[in-house]
């Protein structure tokens, strides 16, 4: 039997990583956190790495997902699967609205729109304290047992069993995204990333593709948000803050855009390093600042780009260096003014 | 009625401070086509340097002179050693590197001055209130309005009546042409970036006695500055002035009518402006 391509390579790497993670890391809850944010970074990567859209709005989807799941669990007394499905749907719908409006502009105006929406959703969540708990967040979010068609598979009470649940979801989303990226749909997204005018000229409705990419990204990120709320037993206001979106963005970029495994690396790196360093040096965010600067100056492919070029050197390939995946083609500053006008 | 007069004056003061921050951001974007996410951090530095100078010398006026200049020098140094390497990269990388810079500055401020905010006293000369009939208003707030109005006028003269201003305006139109005419464009970039940061630092000093200095106000003020720049139109002096005053007035009046709605309205109008009129109220299409 022929094994499809999307089950080889980095899928195997993720499987191995997921299997050894709880044993390498000091605690299972840290491993859970790594995987939850890996899922969020995967969602972000589809937009940033594969469609070329730098969105500060990922926090909206993450926060909406955690509110949707928590409210569904608390008020409707629904099960685990139903609540996560609701988060998936809500995330997709919100992303359709936010993304659909934001992609009406391009370049820096697109970024500004996502920023404006991120702030609006934050202040809406802050104001609607009857629903979201406002500043206090939603307390006592339950983590119900996993039931499929009435069969109780696990109570998810122990953190290791919750880890297994999150890991299965992570792998499923990873494989699904790989499948999407290697489909004609994914190739179209890449075409839009590399040259939107050309994609339009060939006859693709780029707006439709961008909205669908946004919806997939929003749904995935919202599921991560829901998982996070159940993990914390708490849905804090900070889940929908624009800093959350920024953090997800940083993970994606540090790991390497344009590589799904990079998202796992980035989330793992930021969370583990943050956990280790914050205990000994509360100002470790400064290191993150320097790291971002260094990434822009020296390693635009992120961690995954480093590994790739090391592997290339190991195999003896010269010049395996590829174009930085984040970019439209680099343009000289002296000629970008016209493009800036086109962005509008 | 006097309540509204009070709110309007407050709004004007706030608006002028927003103008000072936003105009630098706007000019930098216009000339360099560069999105500076570290601009809020320059405001932050201005406030903290003000605190430091006042703590050392007890002289607010000295800090009004020195603090913005130091901020400008730091920005000039960062521009000419770091940011000038990323001008030919896509916007995403410019956003990242300036976000990194903002994080470094914020965390350095916490290391030096701690997480707890600092208060800066209103200078002796400007303490007290002005009494007009039954209406009283703090002198310092009046000083902020008039002082920043003078700065705005000077800046307008600089941009409209000097060779430097002509170069900045010409560069915003067509950078390549200005460079072909024999102007050292990278020097112009550095000076403009430093000037923009100086203005943000000045805004930080002026705001310090009103709201103190705390390490997380940089990010907050950056959001407002983007709103002002977008509403007024990127690259436009008039836009920054009108946008700043509008946002200041809306914030001040709304906060007496419906406090939770202030930010919703501000960011909502930002989104609306980009969607309906992306070049802002005063930008050129």
Protein architecture, described:
The complex is a heterodimer of chains A (344) and B (285). With 344 residues, chain A is mainly α. Chain A has a single domain (19-343), classed as Orthogonal Bundle (ABC transporter involved in vitamin B12 uptake, BtuC). Chain A has helices spanning 10-24, 28-48, 58-75, 80-102, 108-127, 129-132, 159-181, 184-194, 196-202, 206-232, 242-255, 260-280, 285-297, 302-314, 336-343; strands spanning 138-139, 146-148, 151-154, 234-235. In chain A, α1 runs antiparallel to α2, α3 packs antiparallel against α4 (80-102) and α12 (260-280) crosses α14 (302-314). Chain A starts with 9 loop residues before the first helix and ends with a helix. Chain B is mainly α and 285 residues long. Chain B has one domain (2-276): Orthogonal Bundle (ABC transporter involved in vitamin B12 uptake, BtuC). Chain B is built from 11 helices and 2 strands; from the N terminus they run ααααββααααααα. Chain B has a two-stranded antiparallel sheet. In chain B, α1 runs antiparallel to α8 and α2 (39-57) runs antiparallel to α3. The longest helix of chain B is centred in the first third of the chain and has 31 residues, at 2-32. The termini of chain B are far apart. The interface between A and B is large, with 49 and 50 residues.
